[in-house]
Design brief:
The chain is of the alpha+beta class. It contains one helix and seven strands.
Length: 83
């Protein structure tokens, strides 16, 4: 992964020909990739490294009700709704 030069809390990598992005704030992460299987694979790697003392809380899907106090809805193709 390479840290984004414009935002040090964002890292990108190309996996299976598509961009994989990790954004973080303190202990909250948001991972995104075209393939849910690849996201799951990276989550397992993160869990193995950082979930040794206590399991990580993982939420996957198209709607996140509370990420940093926001609701993020990715259910519509090409669009994200914040509320």
């Amino acid at each position: 992964f390479t840290i984004n030069p414009y935002d040090a809390c964002v890292a990108n990598n190309t996996i299976a020909g598509n961009q994989f992005t990790i954004c973080w704030h303190v202990d909250d992460l948001k991972l995104s990739h075209k393939s849910p299987k690849i996201v799951t694979r990276i989550i397992k790697k993160i869990q193995n490294e950082f979930g040794k003392e206590a399991p990580l809380t993982v939420k996957q899907g198209r709607v996140f009700d509370d990420y940093l106090g926001m609701k993020m809805d990715f259910s519509q193709p090409g669009k994200v709704i914040f509320s």
